[in-house]
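lol ok so funny story. i was supposed to be doing the assay writeup but got distracted and ended up predicting the structure for this chain instead. priorities right. anyway since i did it might as well share w the group, maybe its usefull for someone
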Amino acid sequence: MVKETDNPDEISSLTAPGDPAYEMYRQATLGDVDFITGDYLAEVNMANNAQAYQKGEHPGYEETAWEGIKQTIEVISAKKIKVIINGGALNPRGLAFKVEELVRAKGFNLKVAFLSGDDLHSKFGPNMPTSKDELQHLDGNNQSLNTGPLTYAFLNSSDPVPMISAHAYLGARGIVDGLRRGADIIICGRVADASPVIAAAWYWHSWSETDYGRLAGALVAGHLIECSAYVTGGNFSGFDRYPIERFVLPGFPLAEIDSDGSCIITKHCNTDGMVDVDTVRSQFLYELQGNVYLNSDVSAILDDIVIEQAGLDRVRVSGIRGYAPPPTTKLAIFYSGGFEAQLLLNATGYGTTAKWDLVEKQIHHFIPEETMQKIETLEFQRIGVPATNPASQRSSTTYLRVFVAAVSAQSVLSVVMAMKEISLKHFSDQRCAMPRPFLAYYPAIVSQNLIDERINFIEGPENVVSYSTGHPPKYEPLAPRDSYDHNPSPEEIVLSKTPRQRIRLGDIAQGRSGDKGANLNFGLFVTNSQHWPWLRSYMSRERMREMIAADDDWDDSFLIERVEFPKIHAVHFVIYGILGRGVSSSSRLDGFGKGFADYMRDKVVEVPAELLALKSYL
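and the output, tada:
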């Protein structure tokens, strides 16, 4: 849909492989769109497929991307929809050639191109570096951060550690070049999640590469729609205020991006779910790293973001500013981390705490000391609390999750063997898992000027014409991240001394959380503006530390950063290091941090009673 008044471009988004291929067809047929963009990649699915692809046992691209295009190609051609997806993953060339073959077989007049340059394994592999200086860690410049003991685990090996994959996060400029050269379908590998959306708006509005304010707005639009239904009601903390049927099959989002970079987030009118200020605030806070959002083409300043309802299932987002991008981009590296296993034990009712104490001592007793020195991670995670005066045995049962990781399978197996030693010497039932190999994640940074990004057009069955897409015209060096607490006003100080009432945090605030490697991000907002002074004063960095430290989750190596978004009544935290090595090698039960928000919202907080007398907590 193109509006004559302000001439925005309407961009449809889908995400896979978690979403079925038919969602592309639905987005193309349920209404009018100018572009379909697709973010098919998580860091982990590329790594998981890398070894199989190298052995010729996997096509390298995401199968759902190919299936979606096959189902939708007639509509794409008829409606002249531009398609930009990163479903090419490890092999964008291979998927592009399959799409080109399909286009020729159908007799359609569509130009297919693919982006290359993100795969840097040949430049930095085949093995991991032997010092910290060879490939700087993503958080290496953060002087306040004490990196965890497993951050550089690959340096502990006397033998070379194989690097499985190394992919740089590309921006939008190569895609824009392809669109300007006439491409209809562009297959990408590891471009940043929002880059296809930035590129669509950049091309549509003929922006220059230094229109940073406009590009920054498009970056936020891309961030909002990159996670399929996350902005239309999926993973929405306020879902329980509405009929549950509304969220069974929420529709995917659309972004209408104006020429100034502001946007409307919406969805096709005949789909379920919802788009309102709260769902958009939730997704905005997801996977942020503070108040500046970085992309290879622009840095977006988020402090003054404004999110306003603009109609039924229509939300306007504005207030984003921008400046030049950083000279580096993220380089996602995976390597052979070794082996891991998890053992699940359950115990019932009376004396459970003492039972788990005993099991821990027994397992430690039967692991030889020389083996313990080779084990990188051994955690005993107690899950659940037995009900008082239980109504059933299920409500009386809790679990002990034993997580172990080491370079060698034999070291991991020693914990499994210890369980065999004590099988009839303790109180619990057990399920044991054998060691399995795992990939460890190392996020690095790489100079953008080292990347040879190219847009490649398929001009025949075996003919590819390539064009170098260059680099950004200027860079802005990375600055230390903002982190601050609110300085309360005299009125807020008076309010803090009034009578308090204890409620759960989720009774007054909504939130969203997620992961960025080893770091967890967590945003909170209030829907009643009169509650904002309390939230920003109460939820300080120290308060967050205390709330985490109330259980076993805190470690003094963690670092908490905090910023505010006052125009949407939100605070945002980044907790460095809490997810261990992160991604596929996190030892946490909630390894991707998505459950952290509702865990915190379930905690009891003290709120001035007079605030709770106001209409509507949420």
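Residues 63-79 form the longest helix (17 residues). The mean pLDDT is 91.
back to the writeup now i swear
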